Structure to design on (549 residues):
């Protein structure tokens, strides 16, 4: 019962703190600038209490064998700054890869051997209020506790982002599945908090198509009821399937008759679908700002959006910390460039071998700097990699001190399509074992190949070797999607929304071709042709100082 009381009480306080847009932007500029200036102090304060003085901290198991204590770290940070100190810790084996963090692989380092569990990384100072899930379908490790104080802090960055793109007061629509994800409900709460509640919430997946537990359903209903009660009603989800993107294009076109700009916050592929629908129906959506997240904003996707006179803005988040970077209003060479919210997160690059391949990538290791962060991350990988560089930008983000640019962000352990990601372990089992068992052939007779078509939409081809005899393509496809939907035990996992969206978008196509071998002649369950080019171009920020202290 205490949990529900905290929820209701937390919401009440949150609603009371609600700001007008101008108030929010003033507070944002002021407090973010201050936090950038005190970033080192905040970090040291957070790790001293949350790591060195917290006996349950998993980081101690890696720090203690190396005899690194808080004073060592403090000296390093004071002398060289946070990033150099984090690279030193990494060189001393103080980091977790995504597989270690999620408890998929044991940690064997610094003379220690142990398994991590999801809860070990929870911020010990936080009394959480409700849980959300990331766009990944993994059942363990993606539950994230969100606190209303954290949402309050996070909403200030939205104010800064919207204001920079001239949209602080512009009408907003979300197009995100209702369950079980973070982006829909979180962004609704945050936008409402800065005095510009989303006018519409479109959902790609109907609620009744999903098997969600009562607590989750009830919790979401409660948020809407509390919103109405406290005078800040939130738009309730309205089912709009992927092939009905025209409906959202119409909303944008109508809205733009009376407003210079409007905002559509959605997955990158969903944004492209809206642009295609607008083009096919001669709708004018010039002035729409697409905040896109969940999957890479590739050059092709950017082009498809810009050709309509609309602007794409990359919004990059990780489920364990929320949105941590976003694009600015200046032109950049990379299609998905974004500024790291440097006061909330630090990132260093870690050379990481890609599972099931012979490739290496510069994987991002994340460190949380804010006291309100739901997870306490210190050099933890999330399966993403990309470029990382310091640069001067004349934009508002540059002015508040967000001087780190991320670009070319990709994932090396998940497949992403239509904003929903599936984890490789699920695929591997289905591709290598379950499909051959059902339709014949061997583990190397099936392969998934990821491709982006000329319109910027991603597709997966499921190659079935001609060596496997006669099959019904539609039967294989249905079996594949059903296996995927059932890939997890949890009824509230993303695999439900994900497979539903993949069915709608014809995401997966069966192709009777021989699986493609890698350069070294191996046949792997997926073939990702684009991985290599990104690996080759991302070379920044990998130098490891061996003696930072
Ligand atoms: Zn900028």
């Amino acid at each position: 019962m205490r949990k529900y009381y905290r929820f209701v009480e937390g919401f009440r306080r949150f609603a009371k703190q609600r700001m007008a847009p101008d108030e929010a932007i003033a507070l944002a500029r002021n407090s973010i600038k201050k936090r950038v200036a005190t970033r080192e102090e905040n970090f040291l304060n957070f790790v001293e209490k949350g790591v060195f003085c917290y006996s349950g901290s998993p980081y101690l198991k890696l720090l203690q064998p190396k005899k690194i204590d808080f004073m060592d770290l403090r000296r390093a940070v004071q002398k060289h700054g946070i990033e150099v100190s984090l690279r030193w810790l990494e060189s001393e084996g103080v980091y977790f890869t995504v597989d270690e963090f999620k408890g998929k692989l044991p940690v064997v380092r610094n003379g220690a051997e142990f398994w991590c569990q999801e809860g070990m990384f929870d911020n010990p100072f936080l009394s959480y209020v409700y849980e959300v899930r990331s766009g990944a379908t993994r059942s363990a490790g993606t539950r994230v506790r969100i606190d209303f104080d954290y949402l309050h802090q996070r909403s200030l960055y939205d104010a800064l982002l919207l204001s920079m793109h001239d949209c602080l007061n512009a009408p907003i629509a979300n197009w995100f599945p209702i369950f079980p994800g973070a982006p829909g409900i979180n962004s609704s709460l945050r936008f409402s908090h800065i005095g510009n509640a989303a006018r519409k919430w479109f959902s790609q997946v109907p609620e009744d198509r999903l098997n969600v537990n009562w607590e989750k359903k009830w919790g979401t209903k409660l948020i809407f009821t509390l919103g109405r009660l406290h005078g800040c009603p939130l738009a309730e989800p309205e089912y709009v399937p992927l092939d009905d993107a025209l409906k959202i294009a119409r909303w944008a076109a109508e809205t733009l008759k009376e407003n210079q700009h409007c905002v559509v916050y959605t997955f990158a592929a969903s944004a492209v679908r809206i642009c295609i629908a607008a083009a096919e129906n001669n709708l004018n959506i010039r002035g729409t700002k697409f905040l896109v997240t969940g999957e890479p904003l590739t050059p092709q996707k950017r082009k498809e959006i810009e050709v309509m006179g609309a602007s794409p803005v990359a919004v990059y988040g990780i489920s364990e910390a929320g949105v941590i970077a976003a694009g600015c209003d200046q032109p950049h060479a990379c299609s998905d460039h974004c500024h790291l919210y440097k006061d909330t997160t630090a990132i260093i690059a870690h050379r990481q071998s890609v599972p099931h391949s012979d490739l290496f990538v510069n994987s991002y290791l994340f460190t949380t700097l804010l006291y309100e962060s739901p997870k306490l991350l210190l050099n933890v990988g999330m399966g993403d990699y990309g470029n990382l560089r310091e640069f001067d930008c004349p934009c508002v983000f540059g002015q508040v001190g967000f001087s780190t640019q991320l670009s070319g962000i990709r994932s090396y352990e998940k497949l992403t399509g239509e904003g929903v990601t599936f984890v490789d372990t699920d695929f591997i089992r289905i591709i290598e074992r379950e499909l051959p068992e059902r339709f014949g052939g061997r583990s190397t007779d099936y392969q998934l190949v990821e491709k982006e078509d000329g319109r910027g939409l991603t597709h997966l081809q499921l190659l079935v070797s001609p060596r496997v005899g006669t099959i019904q393509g539609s039967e294989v496809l249905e079996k594949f999607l059903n296996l995927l939907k059932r890939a997890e035990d949890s009824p509230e996992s993303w695999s439900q929304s994900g497979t539903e969206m993949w069915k709608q978008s014809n995401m997966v196509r069966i192709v009777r071709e021989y699986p493609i071998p890698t350069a070294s002649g191996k046949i792997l369950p997926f073939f990702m042709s684009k991985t290599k080019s990104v690996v080759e171009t991302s070379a920044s920020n990998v130098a490891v100082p061996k003696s930072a202290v």
Notes: The CA atoms of residues 174 and 201 lie 5 Å apart. The radius of gyration is 23 Å.
